[in-house]
Amino acid sequence: MAEEHEKGQEIGAANPARPGHATMNTIATHLGVSRATVSHVLNGRSAEQRIRPETQSRVLDVARELGYRPNALARSVRSGKSRMIGYLVSDPRYEPYWNTIIGALDEAEQEGFTLKVLSVTPGTFAERIRQCMELRLGGLIVRINQDKSTLFAEANRVGIPVVTVDESVPQSFGVRVNAADALGCREAVSHLVELGHRRIGFISSGFGRQPLEIVPTREGLFLQEMATRGLDVPDGCVTRETMLVYGRRAKAGHDTATGLAATDALLEHPAGRPTAIFCWRDEAALVAIQACHRRGLRVPGDISVVGFSDISAAWLCDPPLTTCQSPWEEMGRTAVRQLVNAVEGEFDPSPREILIPSGLVVRQSSGPAPT
After folding, report:
1. What's this model's pTM, rounded to 2 decimal places?
2. 108 phi and psi, to 5 degrees?
């Protein structure tokens, strides 16, 4: 038994290490037991090695006293599983993506993991994949707008679990963590209908769209909610603008001209302007408010505007924006929890999706429909 290696030295012996610099060897020397005994206790193997409870307590007390910190690198080499989680993101400067990272950082810290964020561009993607494989990551969170098949193949080959966040397209590998946009759309449309709105326009993205049964876009969900309530959406009441988040325009974050044009198209609709505009993203809603103000329209007196995401500017604008609140931080936390479970349990590469509820934050940009 490991117990037989004890030398009988009392805890009162001289402290051989500065706090925070203790090793298993210094703890063993301090207690007069073998390093193996210390290792078994600190690595949770006391029961299988039949180490007496009083010895376990002494080891744990001295480890705390000396400020022992486990060597994560050595442990990962022995186990083949690192306590480092990688996070690949196309544009970490974009606020919702950064908020997701904040949630992941918070959860990783609580779980005793390290989060390494790697920014990805089309030109650096292959290098980032190589880095992730060489780092022997315990898991990988991915938020990129690129074909991920090569990444999935490499992760599967070396046994790294992958979680994608904010990924609407079904993936062939790992877990997807998404916001339940359908809940937000339902609450937003219900809110406007309860305020008496019947002519509701929608500003959609300029991104490629797929059938609702494949990818539940916010545009499709809006149309579905309107149809459920028996409300007509005339041709031209869904307009599109282009959000530019990546590349040289990243700092601007938004192509204002297309947002203004999309709003103008609604305000000039042949059947009359809508009494409310629902936007696929907060940035589009902020531009829509700007377009309304340019025409002398009061928000919400003449027209209501609702956004989606709840970025910080949503409550700073005039008027503060009613918007669907996407659970960005919770998505990051959930992604980390999934990877921690995979590291500490069995790795299952089969694809599945986890939806985090979204909700509506009512502010001053929405009000009763004008009579």
Report:
1. 0.75
2. -60, -40
Rounded to whole angstroms, how far apart are CA atoms 359 and 150? 35
Q: What is the pLDDT of residues 64-80, one digit of tens each?
A: 888 776 655 455 544 45
Q: Is the dihedral of CA 179, 181, 182, 187 positive or negative?
A: positive
Euclidean distance between CA atoms 163 and 354, whole angstroms: 10
Strands (E), the chain: 84-89, 114-119, 139-143, 162-165, 175-180, 200-204, 238-240, 276-279, 304-309, 322-325, 352-357, 359-361
Question: Tens digits of per-residue pLDDT, 259-316?
Answer: 899 999 999 999 899 999 999 999 999 999 999 999 999 999 999 999 999 999 999 9
Strand partners, 40: none
* Tokens 């960005």, located at residue: 328
Residue 121 contacts by C-beta under 8 Å, 6 or more apart in sequence? 90
CATH numbers and ranges of domains, the chain:
2-70 (1.10.260), 80-179+329-355 (3.40.50.2300), 180-326 (3.40.50.2300)
Q: Report the candidate in 238, 214, 215 with the shortest Cα–Cα distance to residue 226.
A: 238
Among candidate residues 19, 18, 58, 54, the one with its CA nearest the CA of residue 38: 58
Strand 304-309 to 175-180 pairing: unpaired
Which residues is 239 bridged to in the sheet?
203
* DSSP letter for each residue of 200-235: EEEEE-SS----TTTS--HHHHHHHHHHHTT----T
- Say what angle helices 181-194 and 218-228 make with each other, to 10 degrees: 40
Mean pLDDT per 10-residue section of the chain, whose length is 371 residues: 37 41 80 85 71 87 79 50 88 91 94 92 90 88 91 89 89 89 95 97 73 66 94 88 45 66 92 94 94 97 97 95 97 94 78 92 97 83
Question: What confidence score (pLDDT) does residue 44 get?
Answer: 67
DSSP letter, residue 5: G
Task: State the CB neighbour count (10 A cutoff) for residue 252.
Answer: 10
CA–CA distances in Å: residue 234 to residues 37, 284, 356:
76, 21, 32
